[in-house]
Design goal:
Blueprint (H helix, E strand, L loop, with lengths): L2 H22 L23 H9 L6 H4 L7 E2 L5 E5 L4 H6 L6 H14 L7 E4 L13 H18 L3 E5 L1 H8 L5 H4 L4 E3 L2 E6 L2 H6 L4 H16 L1
Parallel strand pairs: 2-3, 2-4, 4-6
Antiparallel strand pairs: 1-3, 5-6
Helix pairs in contact: 1-6, 5-10
The structure holds uracil.
Length: about 230
């Protein structure tokens, strides 16, 4: 999705939130002129630190009601490789860090044993920054509301390569709903960045035989990084 569309989603979500607040205060009517675009500053901060601060204070979707911690992302702010997963799970929700549960341990091994770099050298984040209850797949509305944060992270980190983990990350980032088995390991160019989709580590925990494919995809990542 383009950044402009994504900003529009953020504006709509903010507007909706303001209207709910007014409703709670007892308002039955309000003037739409109060919400003219130019009267609001919707620009997101230009540093990851302030962006994270804004995300931590975000209540734009229902995931904010049940989360314990916002899981913004972590790693090298100048990383060449950005990994994008789906959504925080229980361990991530309680620690505020991405990919620290079982799937996270596997991701760390993949980074260290195949790419031969440290996990601290890359940046890791998710499509949505708050845990969906019962680990459900984020809804399109949740993903779109959260997308401005992700797009701004990409803009600030400017990675050479984005590796999407699992079908949800690939689908929400690119809008392409081709089966993951058909696109994994291929290069997808979008705006001025390059995406390589691969399987999610949680999928590998359930289907260890797919590790070979992920190994091949990461070798491709390694090859591209060496260029
Ligand atoms: N799965 C994800 O997609 N992201 C996490 O941070 C953890 C598990």
């Amino acid at each position: 999705m383009r950044y402009n569309t994504s900003m529009k989603n953020l504006k709509n979500a903010l507007l909706l939130k303001q209207l709910y607040q007014l409703k709670q205060l007892g308002y039955k009517y309000t003037s739409v002129t109060a919400y003219k675009d130019e009267e609001q500053d919707f620009t997101l901060p230009n540093t990851l630190k302030s962006l994270e601060k804004q995300a931590i204070e975000c209540y734009l979707c229902e995931l904010s009601k049940s989360r314990h911690k916002v899981v913004f992302g972590e790693g090298n702010q100048d990383a060449d490789i950005l990994f994008i997963g789906e959504a925080p799970g229980a361990t991530e929700d309680s620690t505020g860090k991405p990919f620290v549960g079982r799937a996270g341990e596997l991701l760390t091994k993949m980074i260290e044993n195949v790419l031969h770099i440290s996990r601290n050298d890359v940046y890791i984040t998710n499509i949505v920054k708050c845990r969906p209850s019962n680990n459900e797949t984020p809804t399109p509305s949740q993903a779109h509301t959260c997308q401005p944060y992700l797009l701004k992270q990409i803009e600030l980190i400017r990675p050479k390569l984005i590796v999407t983990l699992g079908v949800t990350a690939y689908h929400y980032l690119t809008g392409d709903d081709t089966e993951l088995s058909k696109v994994r390991g291929t290069i997808h160019k979008q705006n001025d960045y390059t995406i390589i989709p691969t399987y999610h580590p949680s999928y590998l925990l359930r289907n260890p035989s797919a590790k070979k494919e992920v190994f091949d995809d990461l070798l491709k990542v390694k090859e591209l990084m060496a260029k």
